[in-house]
Amino acid sequence: MSFRARVAVLVALVVAIAVASVAGSFLYMARGQAVDSIDSKLRLRANELTQLGEKLGRPQEFDRRLFGKYSPDDVLVQIFDVRGRIWASNVEPLPINSEDLSIARRHLGARITTAEIAGYRMRVLTLPLRGNGRAVMIARPMDEVDAQLAALWRISIQIFLIGVAGAGLIGFAVAGRVVRPVRRLTEAATRVAETQDVDQPIDIDRDDEFGQLASSFNEMLNALSLSREQQHRLVTDASHELRTPITSLRTNLEYMQRRSSIDDDERQEVLDDVLFELDQLTGLVTELVDLATDQHQMDEAERIELDELVDAVVQRHRRRTSSQIEYSAIACQISAPPALIERAVSNMIDNAVKWSPPDSTIQVQVENGAIVVADSGPGIPIEERENVFERFYRTEDARSLPGSGLGLSIVRHVADSFGGQVRIVDRDEPGTTIELSFPPAD
What we know:
rod-shaped, Beta-Lactamase, Helix Hairpins
């Protein structure tokens, strides 16, 4: 069943319950009012007849005024004693039971009941007469009441059916308008799935929940479009960067294959070149895998002592480089995966080592969730500072040096993934200063 049909059924069901409740309550109150009206009529006639029993010396009949059996124009009256003898009556004898006799003996007070008498439903009032051991029964048929209630019941059924049918139709029409934005959204999602074209935003100008849903859908399409564009660019750039070391390897291997005899020095030179290109290729593939790793597949973030982690990275770089690294830190904590922070800091220090002159000093500082790495190299021109964080981007001076152009892009990827920021800091001294900062741990 469609959502539209479900809404229509639900609306019809709610209306049905409401109409049934109102109609039932109305019929109940109408019946009560009708019965109260009969009871009031019976009590009024009782006030007129309470003295009648004292005037009767023997059983007799008085003016019957009958229009057929048990069908008088007003009320039915019957006076009886404690033995059940009828002293006066304007009708055929009404049945007398033990409770009626108890009322004549004054063991019970007056009572009003509904009785079935000769196929007629009647309302019967029985009350004692004063001083002579007699009681009077005053009855009135309920044909009028039953006919009115039957008519009201038929009207209620008609109103119920009309109300439910009308509510169903109205609910179906209203549901159609309600689900129209959802249908448009579904069509847009189906279109994207079939055509694989994510540049098809849905146009819904609303301020309600459907408008928010459409806005979220468009944001999702924009994110998918950006992701596809980045993926395409990554594949294009990666294929270009991978082609260079692979071509060099192929050239060296073909050279060794063509030469039947190569002296030791030349062979060693070719092998050194092959090993260098293999190292470059391995590093490039490793960085590509790290950069392409989805944020949701990264390690769980945890509270880490940033100063201790950076100190360990600095110690490793001191052991494998001749450059002097000065390290200063103030204890602080951040929330991030330790392995990724180590990789980002290592890339920053590798970049500083690559650009620093021999025997120069590299400065590393940690404070308030920020890592600052400063070198003494030639620096980065202002117009290229933002580009150095792009994938595979290399400045004019860097293209002759080893490297893939992915180091700083990995730093920015880590920063963006965990609420951090990376930037190049202006300073008066020569060189480049890069700051990677994260919000403090809660």
